[in-house]
Each structure stands twice: as C-alpha cells, then as structure tokens.
Design goal:
The complex is a heterodimer. Chain A is of the alpha+beta class. Helix content of chain A is 52%, strand content 19%. In chain A, a hairpin with a 4-residue loop joins strand 11 and strand 12. In chain A, helix 19 runs antiparallel to helix 20 and helix 28 packs antiparallel against helix 30. Chain B is an alpha/beta fold. Chain B is built from five helices and seven strands, in the order βαβαβββαβαβα. Chain B has a five-stranded parallel sheet with strand order 2-1-3-6-7. In chain B, strands 4-5 form a two-stranded antiparallel sheet. In chain B, helix 1 links the parallel strand 1 and strand 2. The termini of chain B are close together. At the A-B interface, helix 25 and helix 26 of A face helix 1 and strand 4 of B.
C-alpha cells in the first residue's frame, strides 16, 4: 500500500492535461494509453518531465505538442520493453513439463503448433519459447512451429525482426544455446535463420486489434499488469477466444486470470499456467449463466416440487401408517438430534462467519499483497528497464568515448591547426598543428582571446566570422592573415564551424587553419617573375636591369635585396634595395666598411666562386657571431635583424658574374627550398636577359663592323680603281700623242693596280668561302724555303724602304697548299711593312721542330696593344686607335691567314709590344695529318 | 705663269697616276703622302701652289682638318682646295672643312682636268 501512497504523493496536478496527452499520443502513435494504469502512466510522465526539467504538466503538454521527438520518447517510456532471454527459466521449464507434452499429444506431424506471444517487446521472450520448444521437439516429435509475436511498439518489433542482440545476452543463455541458436556478429549475436523463420513478428495492439485464432499456447506476460480492470477483462476474453479448445494460457507471475475465472482453469498456479475452459463463446456463456439462474428462480417453482412429492406418498400409504410410531420416535430422536445439530450448526455458523470474515480479511490482505506485488513487479520492470537503458547508454557512452579518443587523436595529429573558441572569442582548445603553426603551446594560449593571433588590420576578422556563423552562413576557405608568437605574418585559409549545445544554440566555433603562406607566396612569386621578365626585356644595360630587379624584389621576395657583380676580380655592389630607405644607407655603410672579399668562406664571394646558390632558412645569432669581423660589425649585423637569407649566382657562360642576395628581417619570413627555386629561376632569367642583351649588343657591333668593312672595302677597292682609271685615261691621251715608251711604263703600273684589285677581290671571295667552309686547298709536300724566298722577292719589289732578311732554313718539306701558304706569308709581310713605316727591316725566321716547321715574321713598327692581341685573328678586326685609323686594309688578312694555318693543322700566334714591334709566327706540319 | 699643284694622298699609286696625268697637261706637280706638309704650307718659304688636291682620309690626318687650317690662314686661304675621296659619305663631310670642290674616287680625269683648268683660268 505504501507504493500507492508514494504514487499519490507523486501524482501530478491534472487539469485535463493527461487526457490531452493521451489524445495526442493516440493521434501520433496510434496507441491508446487511456486504459493503462494511472500509476504507471503518472510515474512515466513524471520521469519524462524530470528529464526535461519541467514541473508543470501543462508546460509539458505544450512541449509535447511542439516536439515530435518527445512524443516518441514518451511512447517508448510508456511501453516498457523489459525482457530478456529466459527471464523466468522456471516458467519455461513448467511449459516443457506440463504444456508441451499435452500439445504434441494431439498433433499430427503436419499440423503446426501455434503459439502467440503478445507484448513480445524486442522478441526475447518469443525466441526463448521458440528455443525451449525446439529443444523439446528435438527429443520428442518433429512438428512445425508457428510463433506469432506481437507488440504495439513498432521500433521494438523491428528490433525483434532483425534478431541481433548485444553481447550481454550471453549472461542469460547457456553456451550450448548460444552456439546452437545464434551466430556471433560484430557487437553481438544474430538469431539463426531456422529459429527466426519460426517466429512471425507483427505490430498488434492487444487491447484494440482482433486476436489470432486456434492457438495452442498464448504466453502473455506482464501485459495485464499495466491494464486497468476493464481492459484486463477485455483482453482475457480475447485471449480465451484465440485459444483452441485444448489451448493453454500463461501469464506473468504477478498476474491473474481471476477476474474472468469462468474462462480458464488453473493448471499450474505457481507458474500461472491455465487451460481454456470449454465454453463456446465467453461472452455467450456469461449471458447463458445469467439466463439459467433466472429461469431456475421463476419457472421451477415450489409448486412443482410439491406435486412430485404427493405422487410418491399415495403409492406407499400403508407403509407410512405402520411406520408412524417409528417416525414419531425417530422424529423425537431427530428433534433431539436437530436441536443438537442446530447448536452445532449455530456453533459452525459462528465459526464459518468468523472464518468467512477472516477469509475476507485474508482476501483483502491478499488483494493488497497482490496489488503490492504488482506494484513491485512493475517497479522492478521499470528498474530493469532503467538498468538496461543505463547499460545500453553505458555501451553507447563507451563507444562515444572511444570515438572521442579517436577524434581527439585525429585532431591532435592533424597537420592543420584546429582550435576552438567561445562566442566571446576565448580560445578553448588547441591542437599540436596549432602549436606548429602559431608557435604557442596549448597551456599558454588556452583562455586567451583569439585576437592575439590576428595581426593589426585583421582584428575585425573575429566579429565578421562570428557574424557569418550566427547568420547560418558557411565559413570555408576564408583567406586571411594570422600572426605567430614570434610576430611572423602567415597567410592562412580558415574553415570555421559553429559549436552548439544540446539545445542547438551556438556556444562557440571550431576553426581549422591551414598555412597557405607558401601558396600565396608562390602566387606572388609567379607575379614577381612575370614583372621581372618585363624589366629584363626593357633594358640592354644589365646593371640598370639588376637595379630595377632589386627594387622589384623588395618587399615581394625579401625585405632586402642586394646585387653584387664581379668586376676585375673585385666584388662590386651595384644595387641595394630595402623596404625602409633609411636602412639602405645603413646597408651601404655596412657593405662599404665590411666589404666582402673574394675569399670569404660563405656568402656572396663563395657563391661567386662556386656558382652555387646558398640558402639560410634561419640566421642564428651564432652565425652572425661567426661571420662578424669585429664588435662593431656584429652590432651592425644584429641591428639589421636578419631572419633568413638566400644568395643566387648570375651565371653567364658557366661563370658566375654576379650574385643576388635576398634577406628577410621584419617580416620574419623564412625562406625554403621553394623560395630558392623561385629566385634561382629569377637568376636564370636574369642570366638569359643579360646574355640576350650581350648577344644583341654583339650583333649590333657585328653589324656595325660589317658596315665598316663594306665601306672600308669599297674605299680600298676604289683606290686602285681610281689610279687605274687615271692611267687608262692618261694612256689614251698618250697614245693620241704616240709616246710609246711612256705608254709601256704606264701599262706596267696599270697592271700592278689590276693585281692589287684582283688580290682584294680574292681576299673578299676567300672570306665568304671560308665562312661557307668552301675554301679549297691543293695540298702537296713542298719546299717551304723556296716558297718563302719567292714570296719575299715579290714583296721586296714593292718596297724600297724595307729590307726583308731571312734567317735559318727548314730541313724537310712541309705538307700543304703552297700558294695558300704564300698568301699567308704575303699577308704577314705586307702587314709588317704597313705597320712599321719608320723602320727599315723585317726579319723572317725559319726553324725546324720535331713535327713542324716554324716561320716567323718580325717587324720593328708600332706594335699592338695587349687588349687587341686576342681579337687580332677575328674577322674584320682592325686595330683601331685615333692615330692609326687610316692604315688601309680590309681587316680580313689575318683572319684568312689564321684560318688557312688552322686548316693545315698548324698554329698561328703573335707577340707584340706597343712601340717596339710585333712578331707573327706559324707552324706547318711536315706530314699530312 | 706658275701652274703649280700640290697633291696630297696617302696612296702612292694615286699620287703617281695623278702626277703622270697632270704633268702631261703641263702643270707643275708636287706630291706628298704626308698631311703635315700641306698643313705647314703657311709657314713654308717660297712659292705656294696655285691649287691643292687633297685626299679626305689620310694616314694619321683628317683632310678636312688640314683644309680648315689652310682656309683660316691669311697666307693660304685664297688657294683653292679640291678634295678627293672614295669614302661614301665624303661629299657631305668635307663641306665643314671649307673645301672649294669635291671629286669622288674613282673619277673621270676629264672631270678632274676641267675643274683644275677652271681654277687656273680664274686665277688668270
């Protein structure tokens, strides 16, 4: 009774809300709970309200009306799905002992055993009966089995249909049963197919839907306890109807069929097993019972009874008279006895009454006990439900925890920075990636405002991002800048998601930040390269170009950019650019005072020596100390705040002609291999640019040289033509006057001029042939002494001033084209004469070496400056000098001579001293090579 | 009458051929390879030539410089100077020097003799 009192205490202030809740539930779930026991209903609703933190039923009704999820939850709570495998093994054993044998006795092997398990919840009870029955049938008789298992809760039915149960069921099932009827699956056990197929699960409301029929056994456990008396009656009638005449009903331990005792006969009171009483229709039978009693009262009256008695007296009159005395005596005796009996009866009546009252008391007590028992059972079921709920919650919790641990590990090991913050912008979590990116450790940053990560100018990011989140907008790949602990600015891409509490309110945000500094830098770099290319093509003066590139490189590539070039073995700074113009002066001073020297083991000199780039991702103080020359130098270096540096050479013709140095200071940017690749690309473009400019300049020079040559050639050619013309015309006049002697003299001179003209033209031809590689040689073994002698004779005749002296001889013949060699010699001799106008001798030396003959021509003329010597054999090259510019010639003689000797596998060389004279030598091999 | 002509050219062949032709015409011809000779004419004692035939490009000397010098000196400025050159742009360049006339090499001697004769006629 105390339970009931408690319930009363807990009873809710109901002003019609409960009815509304039932209506709502009926509408939404198709289940009518109005017939359910108020105590249970109250307890359950009360529990739900506690969970929702509500004390007013009206409020709860409002909440329920607007929250379909809560309706589901309440329905679930009201329909207590407490069950497990072999919950009451004794009852199953009782079934095996007294019910199953009776059922199979009358069955043929084709006729199926039909069993109904209403209120089967998630199916454990139905499967338990199926298991027991299968075990029983295996030992006795093979009969098909049909188990109908129903419940009003469709979710529970779905679970039963799936037949998958948690590992914990092993506690209630023997290993033999587990092995035989289940298959182990992930996280549990699956009912075997044959067992599953014997069970038919369906959603069915026992209180509403028509029952099944012709059933052999109904196991309806712990259903009735939740129903009030009216519904209990209705259900029991339905169950009676559903059973076949010899069918059995089993109810829960605290349940009774007593409310309809006419329908069932007790078979096993302990285990609550009943047999169907053979009545046609329980409703009809009741009516007939009432009818019979009425008829007995009214139709069969005392009159009829008396009539029957009189008939019997007439036929036995004599016997009556004779026995009157006897009767009288007996009457007396009987009277005595009756009196005695009466006293006994009175006594008995008293006792009976007493008994009756105690019995009634007992019944009352029993009922009370029954009620208490029911309450207890209900509470126990609720407790078990709560316990199982807890158990499954615990499993879920454990899984959630594992999930959390796994998630935490993922978050922790992520390369991206993952942090969370409150709505106020206070950092609440900080992963390892965040530490790597921003430099702060979790313990020093958690609790600080997120704005410490924002550089000036980006502080408005926080309200902006939170604003977007609150508006329900997605914040993905938001590109902005952040600042590290050291003050380094990073380009980052942010993806921010709102964090919500259980009510769905935004309580903060989680942020994934990815460092896109490199990506941004790459974009900048590509842009920089494109701009640099423009600059490179804008000027042919590479110093101007380099200065412009250095300007462009700041601040895109570095805070500093300096350009040094190698000039006559000295390192010369040609450009210094810095973000801050004041610092340029400082840097110039640094370079001036502590100018790098070519032999420095690292830095620009080293890069210039090796032609290899240098990368200093991080310049430590130790490095500054190591490279400082003195205390002041160190102070200057420290003052500049170097962070990172890289030096790339500018290579032209495989030789480093300069180097570009990029340094970061204030921006705290660190150069990487990628940065180096970019500037190497830049250096390579600069090299190409310079190379192009040089080639262009050279081409321009060559064109100018060719123009000069053409005008020179025309001038030179015109000179003999001029005198030829004069002679010819003079001759014409002479002939007119007929002065023959004079004419012969003139003709000789004319012939000389024609020879000169022919030689110039030949030279021109040779040059173009040489260029095309078509100069032909007529090679043979010949006496070089003789060739030298003949050439000298021919040249000697053209000069009166110079005496050509030959010294030495060549012992062996040489191999070659003797006319071409004569041409070389002529060229050298005429040059010697031409360039020694004030001297009177030329020495030709002949000597023999092991494999080659050597010929040299020495003059004592003006000599040649050193700077011209290596270009002397170039085509069209004429030594130009303000005082020498009018020495006639095409500037192709030496070029042709050099080529002829080279192609004879000989060598040609020159030694000369300005103002002293020159000596040209060539060698010729003795044998064909 | 003094029909003396000074020919200045660094090419001996030219000097030879001009001497041959001009002497054939009855002129008194002095030839020189050296520009200095012409340059120093104002300081020279004795007769001055009546005409100078001057090559534009001389070894070590620029004909226009010599021309300028002679034309700016009171002693020599009246002497007509005929410049000759094989240089393609010579005709344009020599005017700066103040030469009286120009002949491009190679020239027709009729042209030369006409011009020479013209100066002597004018002098007469």
């Amino acid at each position: 009774m105390s339970g009931r009192n408690d319930n009363k205490k807990r009873e809710l202030q109901d002003n019609g809300e409960l009815k509304k809740i039932f209506q709502l539930l009926h509408k939404k779930t198709r289940i009518d709970f109005s017939g359910y026991k108020p105590s249970t209903i109250n307890r359950r609703i009360h529990r739900r309200m506690m969970l929702q933190d509500m004390s007013d039923l009206k409020k709860y009704l409002d909440y329920l009306q607007n929250n379909s999820e809560e309706i589901q939850l309440l329905q679930k709570d009201l329909l207590i799905n407490v069950t497990r495998f072999f919950r009451d093994p004794e009852k199953i054993a009782a079934l095996k002992k007294s019910v199953f044998p009776a059922l199979i006795a009358n069955k043929s092997t084709q006729e199926p055993l039909r069993i109904w398990v209403p209120g089967c919840a998630t199916g454990e009870e139905a499967y338990s009966i199926a298991i027991a029955l299968n075990e029983f049938l295996q030992k006795h008789k093979s009969i098909p089995v049909q188990i109908f298992a129903t419940d009003v809760n469709s979710t529970a039915i779905d679970k039963a249909k799936n037949g998958v149960y948690l590992d914990s069921i092993a506690a209630h099932l023997s290993p033999q049963r587990l092995t035989r009827f289940f298959t182990k699956v992930e996280n549990g056990y699956l009912i075997n197919k044959d067992l599953r197929e014997q069970c038919i699960f369906a959603v069915h409301d026992l209180t509403k839907n028509p029952p099944f029929s012709n059933l052999d056994l109904i196991s309806c456990q712990n259903v009735l306890i939740y129903l009030n008396a009216t519904l209990q009656k209705k259900v029991l009638t339905a169950l009676h109807y559903a059973l076949q005449p010899q069918g059995f009903l089993m109810v829960g331990n605290s349940e009774n069929v007593g409310i309809e005792k006419n329908l069932f006969q007790t078979i096993d009171s302990k285990h609550k097993i009943y047999a169907k009483k053979p009545t046609a229709n329980p409703i009809l039978q009741q009516d007939m019972a009432n009818l019979y009693q009425d008829k007995m009262k009214h139709t069969f009256s005392n009159q009829k009874l008396t009539k029957m008695r009189t008939k019997k007296t007439q036929s036995e009159a004599a016997n009556i008279v004779s026995r009157v005395e006897k009767v009288t005596r007996l009457k007396e005796a009987l009277e005595l006895t009756r009196k005695y009996a009466d006293s006994i009866v009175d006594e008995l009546n008293a006792i009976t009454e007493e008994l009756q009252s105690s019995n009634e008391e007992l019944i009352v007590n029993n009922e009370e006990l029954q009620t208490t028992n029911e309450e207890l059972e209900t509470s126990q079921e609720e407790l078990q439900a709560a316990n199982e709920e807890l158990l499954s919650l615990n499993v879920a919790l454990q899984q959630r925890e594992e999930e959390l641990t796994r998630m935490a590990a993922i978050v922790e090991s992520s390369d991206d920075a993952i942090i969370s913050k409150s709505c106020e912008g206070i950092i609440t979590s900080w992963n390892h990636g965040a530490q790597r990116l921003y430099g702060y450790r979790a313990e020093e940053i958690i609790g600080k405002p997120v704005s410490v990560l924002m550089p000036p100018g980006k502080k408005s990011d926080f309200p902006k991002i939170m604003g977007m989140l609150l508006q329900g907008k997605r914040v993905e790949h938001y590109e902005t800048q952040r600042m590290t602990k050291e003050g380094r600015i990073l380009d980052v891409s942010l993806t921010v998601s709102p964090l919500r509490n259980a009510k769905g309110e935004i309580i903060g945000a989680s942020k994934i930040a990815r460092d896109i500094t490199e990506k941004k830098q790459t974009e900048k770099n590509l842009k920089f390269l494109a701009e640099a290319s423009k600059i490179l093509s804008s000027s042919f003066d590479y110093k101007t170009t380099l200065k412009n590139v250095a300007k462009l490189a700041v601040p895109q590539i570095g805070d500093w950019c300096t350009v040094d070039v190698l000039s006559d073995g000295e390192i010369k700074s040609i450009a210094v650019a810095h973000k801050d113009p004041k610092k340029v002066t400082w840097a110039r001073e640094l370079q001036k005072t502590y100018h790098p020297t070519v032999n420095d083991p690292q830095g620009v000199p080293h890069v210039l020596r090796t032609g290899k780039s240098e990368l200093y991702p991080e310049i430590s103080d130790e490095m500054l100390v190591a490279s400082a020359r003195d205390a002041r130098h160190l102070k200057l270096l420290r003052g500049l705040g170097f962070t990172s540096a890289m030096i790339v050479p500018i290579v032209i013709d495989k030789e480093a002609i300069g180097a570009i140095t990029f340094v970061t200071t204030e921006s705290r940017r660190r150069y990487t291999k990628e940065s180096l690749t970019i500037v190497e690309e830049l250096a390579s473009r600069i090299s190409h640019g310079i190379e192009h400019a040089r080639l262009y300049t050279e081409a321009q020079k060559a064109i100018a040289l060719r123009d000069d040559f053409i005008s020179m050639a025309s001038h030179e050619l015109k000179t003999p033509v001029t005198s030829l013309k004069i002679y010819t015309q003079g001759l014409q006049k002479q002939i007119e006057i007929t002065d023959k002697n004079m004419s012969i003299e003139q003709l000789k001179k004319m012939n000389n001029q024609v020879d000169k003209l022919a030689m110039l033209i030949t030279d021109l031809l040779n040059v173009s042939r040489m260029q095309l590689g078509k100069l032909e040689f007529n090679e043979q073994s010949f006496n070089l002494n003789k060739q030298v002698k003949e050439t000298i004779e021919s040249i000697q005749s053209t000069t009166k001033k110079h005496k050509i002296i030959v010294e030495g001889t060549i012992e062996k013949n040489v191999w070659g084209d003797k006319d071409r060699i004569g041409q070389v010699l002529t060229n050298l001799l005429t040059n010697a004469i031409k360039y020694s106008p004030l001297s009177d001798k030329i020495i030709v030396q002949l000597s023999s070496e092991k494999d080659v003959a050597v010929v040299s021509v020495q003059d004592f003329g003006i000599g040649i400056e050193k700077q011209h010597l290596n270009k002397l054999f170039n085509r069209f090259y004429r030594v130009t000098d303000p005082n020498e510019k009018t020495f006639p010639g095409l500037g192709i003689g030496l070029y042709i001579s050099y080529d002829i000797i080279r192609r004879h596998n000989g060598t040609m060389s020159v030694t000369s001293n300005k103002g002293v004279g020159s000596q040209f030598s060539f060698t010729l091999p003795y044998k064909r090579q | 009458m003094n029909k003396s002509i000074l020919v200045v050219d660094d090419n001996l062949d030219i000097l030879d051929s001009l001497r041959f032709i001009l002497e054939g015409e009855g002129y008194t011809v002095t030839t020189t390879e050296k520009g200095e000779y012409a340059e120093n004419l104002p300081e020279k004692k004795g007769d001055l030539p009546k005409l100078i035939i001057l090559d534009f490009l001389l070894s070590g000397k620029d004909g226009t410089v010599i021309c300028k010098r002679l034309k700016s000196n009171a002693v020599t400025k009246h002497i007509p100077i005929l410049m000759i050159s094989a240089h393609p742009d010579a005709e344009k360049l020599i005017h700066a020097g103040g030469a009286d006339d120009f002949l491009a090499k190679p020239f027709d001697i009729t042209n030369l003799l006409d011009k020479v004769e013209k100066y002597f006629k004018r002098a007469d």
